[in-house]
């Protein structure tokens, strides 16, 4: 079984992305400055506000317990538990949540093997969904859930979770992973300008470093942030068609296009004058703290729109004032491009409670709750876009919706052993490359060897 890859493999127009995100450019995306909002701030699912008015009928599930798992922890877990609390209120069901951590495929695989799979998992890897469809561990959505998805989602998102003409998933959360975050005060003090090209980017980092603050902080103790670096660079140096071919392993990782992308990354990661030292031992959250702490230890950090939530949760900096972002820079005159990701809900059984919760996750009710809490982007086109809490989200949405090229996170499209497992495949090999960025040929060969093993030859 294979996913219909039209959405991931074809150039996505601005209008399609607009529909996928649910409104005009000024009405979409996550707004990170309010991501620290707590449950106490949003109590009132029965006080008549937008998050408390159910848009549809919910069944009576009193006495039923449903288990849900995902990779979210911390503030994201708290916010999602608020989403689940509304479902509990409307149905009488009890819903328990478990965080799977970074190793989603491993943790979920262990539960499946032990006969303890959750009722629903929200996973960030379409490649893992592909494997679970093939193994028969997950079930297609019932007609009622399919109808809810068709009512609320553009074809872009339906295609990404359709296998052999059957819909298996609900894309609940989306992310723009082509944002570079910077300390406004550091850039102003250094006289650094906001870059548009890769050459401008490295020059800005040098200007910041010359001011006495290292230009860039990288958290490379785990591999997923490094895969995002590679994917953004590769999308810009190789183009969308080659990106699709590499994701499908139709070209080898020793291809000249991969070598070129590694050369670009190696030039950055190997320049000690631009980097805050200790990146190989630094976690991603710590890389954010390094940039937005007082005093700042670095001027810039790369990652997706969710960095806004990290800033709010971990530091006293205010997004939109002390912290801001710019789009990942163009390379070799590449067009505006966005690499994105998200979490898709999949079901391990088709009983009434499970499918009712899947239908709820596909509804505006569920999306609106987390939108208002912050740190969240919904691909549900009927969600209330007025609920996004700050202007930075609008700027991120404008980048997303105006991009000439959109591609889903490449590592998430590959078998999880290659693109989504700690200590293996891309994660581990790019950590090793970060530590030894001169070994371009060896890294490419190691990536190809790992890909051949994961793809089954």
TrEMBL record:
Q: Where is the segment annotated Disordered?
A: 23-64
Q: Per its UniProt record, what Gene3D superfamilies does this chain match?
A: Periplasmic binding protein-like II (3.40.190.10)
Q: Transmembrane stretches, by residue range? A: none
Task: Point out the signal peptide segment.
Answer: 1-19
UniProt keyword terms in alphabetical order: Signal, Transport
Q: Which Pfam families match?
A: SBP_bac_8
Q: State the InterPro entries in the record.
A: Bact_solute-bd_prot1, SBP
Q: Where is the composition biased (Acidic residues)?
A: 37-50
Task: Classify the source by domain of life.
Answer: Bacteria
Recorded family membership: Belongs to the bacterial solute-binding protein 1 family.
Q: What is this protein called?
A: Carbohydrate ABC transporter substrate-binding protein
What species does this protein belong to? Flaviflexus salsibiostraticola
What lineage is on file? Bacteria, Bacillati, Actinomycetota, Actinomycetes, Actinomycetales
């Amino acid at each position: 079984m294979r996913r219909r890859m039209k959405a991931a493999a074809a150039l996505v127009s601005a209008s399609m992305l607009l529909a996928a995100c649910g409104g005009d450019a000024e009405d979409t995306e996550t707004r990170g400055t309010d991501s620290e909002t707590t449950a106490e701030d949003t109590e009132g699912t029965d006080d008549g506000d937008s998050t408390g008015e159910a848009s549809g009928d919910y069944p009576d599930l009193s006495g039923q317990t449903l288990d849900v798992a995902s990779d979210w922890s911390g503030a994201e877990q708290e916010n999602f538990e608020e989403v689940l609390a509304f479902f509990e209120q409307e149905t009488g069901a009890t819903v328990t949540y478990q965080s799977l951590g970074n190793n989603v495929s491993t943790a979920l695989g262990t539960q499946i093997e032990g006969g303890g799979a959750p009722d629903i998992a929200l996973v960030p890897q379409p490649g893992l969904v592909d494997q679970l469809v093939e193994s028969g561990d997950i079930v297609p959505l019932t007609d009622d859930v399919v109808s809810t998805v068709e009512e609320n989602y553009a074809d872009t998102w339906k295609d990404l979770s359709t296998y052999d003409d059957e819909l298996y998933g609900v894309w609940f959360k989306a992310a723009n992973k082509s944002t570079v975050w910077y300390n406004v005060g550091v850039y102003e003090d250094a006289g650094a300008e906001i870059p548009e090209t890769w050459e401008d980017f490295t020059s800005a980092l040098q200007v910041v470093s010359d001011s006495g603050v290292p230009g860039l902080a990288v958290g490379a103790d785990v591999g997923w942030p490094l895969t995002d670096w590679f994917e953004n660079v590769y999308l810009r140096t190789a183009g969308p068609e080659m990106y699709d071919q590499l994701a499908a392993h139709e070209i080898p990782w020793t291809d000249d296009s991969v070598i070129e992308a590694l050369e670009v990354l190696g030039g950055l990661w190997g320049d000690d004058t631009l980097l805050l030292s200790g990146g190989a031992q630094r976690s991603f959250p710590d890389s954010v703290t390094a940039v937005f702490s007082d005093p700042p230890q670095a001027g810039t950090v790369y990652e997706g729109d969710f960095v806004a939530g990290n800033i709010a949760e971990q530091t006293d900096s205010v997004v939109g004032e002390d912290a801001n972002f710019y789009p990942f820079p163009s390379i070799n005159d590449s067009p505006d491009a966005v690499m994105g990701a998200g979490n898709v809900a999949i079901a391990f059984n088709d009983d009434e409670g499970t499918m009712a919760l899947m239908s709820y996750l596909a509804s505006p009710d569920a999306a609106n709750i987390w939108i208002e809490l912050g740190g969240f982007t919904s691909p549900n086109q009927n969600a209330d876009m007025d609920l996004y809490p700050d202007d930075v989200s609008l700027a991120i949405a404008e980048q997303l919706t105006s991009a000439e090229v959109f591609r889903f996170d490449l590592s998430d499209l590959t078998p999880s052993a290659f693109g989504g497992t700690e200590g293996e495949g891309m994660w581990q090999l790019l950590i090793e490359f970060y530590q030894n960025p001169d070994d371009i040929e060896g890294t490419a060969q190691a990536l190809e060897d790992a890909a051949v093993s994961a793809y089954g030859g």
